Amino acid sequence: MKRLSIFLMSLLASLPVWAADAIGGAVEQRSLNIHAIVMFFIFVGATLYITYWAAKRTRSAKDFYAAGGGITGFQNGLAIAGDYMSAASFLGISALVYGSGYDGLIYSIGFLVGWPLITFLVAERLRNLGKYTFADVASYRLQQGPVRSFSAVGTLVTVALYLIAQMVGAGKLIQLLFGMDYASAVVMVGILMVLYVMFGGMLATTWVQIIKAVLLLSGATFMAFMVLKLSGFSLETMFKTAIDAHPKHTAIMSPGGLVSNPIDAISLGIGLMFGTAGLPHILMRFFTVADAKEARKSVFFATGFIGYFYILTFIIGFGAIMLVLNQPQYTDAKGLIGGNNMAAIHLANAVGGDLFLGFISAVAFATILAVVSGLTLSGASAVSHDLYASVWRHGRSTEAQEIRVSKMATVALGIVAIFLGIAFEKQNIAYMVGLAFSIAASANFPVLFLSMFWKGLTTRGAVLGGLIGLISAVALIVLGPTVWVDVLKNKEAIFAYKNPALFSMTAAFFFTWLFSVMDNSESANKERAAFLPQFIRSMTGVGAEGATSKH
Description:
Blueprint: H1 2-13, H2 34-57, H3 61-66, H4 73-84, H5 87-100, H6 105-129, H7 134-138, H8 144-178, H9 182-230, H10 235-245, H11 262-276, H12 280-283, H13 292-323, E1 331-332, E2 335-336, H14 343-392, H15 399-423, H16 429-453, H17 459-479, H18 481-487, H19 501-517, H20 522-529, H21 531-540
């Protein structure tokens, strides 16, 4: 751990020599922000210490995957908010509002409305039935091998897409902050991410998320307050100033600027709403609390924090139009320095100067590190717990072997995240997360939901229906405008819509139902008969795992 820390500090010390502009191509180097760099080092040092502290307390698989089940409801609510208030939320949504105005709100609302669904349908049953991953719940009464294999694949695809957004946000932020090369910035984030997860597990990840959530909520509150203060605490004045400054003028207050097609809008809404209940790194958080009561508390607190935060991002986006757009110190010949994803960072400088810019930059970096740590841990646990321990070793592996495989998977995911982050440099990060939600809604949510609520679900239906949802979602994303036209440079997309969830989630539910009702095998009848004992445990918690430690 010490050697890795020394290596990391050496890497960070050499940052200023890696100079490049914020978008690509040689331009005049911006002066380094000393406040930002100092706060950045303070945060990195603090989180490395948390990782060291957590490593000494991570003794078992339950400690590594679920922080021993000893996190309180309030702590977990803050940690969930920290997990959810990602780079896509802070940088991406404010960038969408900055570029498109009112329409950026569709992402804020979409990200938020999934939480009541989790509160009433998922949280309590998930905690009562599961152990470490949502595959524990999906495979509870079904055949372990096929269902866990499918769940692991769904988890890894969702995690990979979600990681792209975080890595792009981190790369752009560090690039802007230090003036270093984008690829080098992404590599550095990947190294830090691997360190946190490998050594600290869920306990370190949880506390990094809690600290980051408090800092981010504080910083965003100050930014929104300053924007409102400069508007005379009048929303009307804020909107009028933004309309006058924006090249689209009154069009930024009308819907249709970002998502003009009704099918696309409905599909995006479905993906964001139901995808929340299928995100593996969010679902994994419910296993860190002692019981179902604490799981419900987690969602209650998380919803409050997240809802408040999304109100702030809307004000921050319009504040950026007011105070950053057309200002020469924040723009160059190509537009906003660092791209639109950096609108909130430039606004921090506009309302609070270099010192507050340093704080917000460090907090935004903390945001990204916390989220990528949670994502990486959920992906690594899918490999080690679901595939290695349950499928390949049939439950005969030791905890030490399982944790070792998880750490190897963490390194592999770090490498994959770095390559994906570099490949998708130009994409809007909120949009990339929207695609991850679409896959979660199409592959993970239907199987998880039906496994808990429908007696007729069988292994054949779950695996085939879930795979159809997963494959169709990925295929439609590839054939849609974002990848087929923007990335692969074809003239016209084969699939006309940017968001596939309306089609792929419907297909997943339909084929899961169809293959289940057509399955009259002996094993299918046993699986249907096992629904009642599962339902009783999901509602009462009798037989559910308790906490092993308090943190």
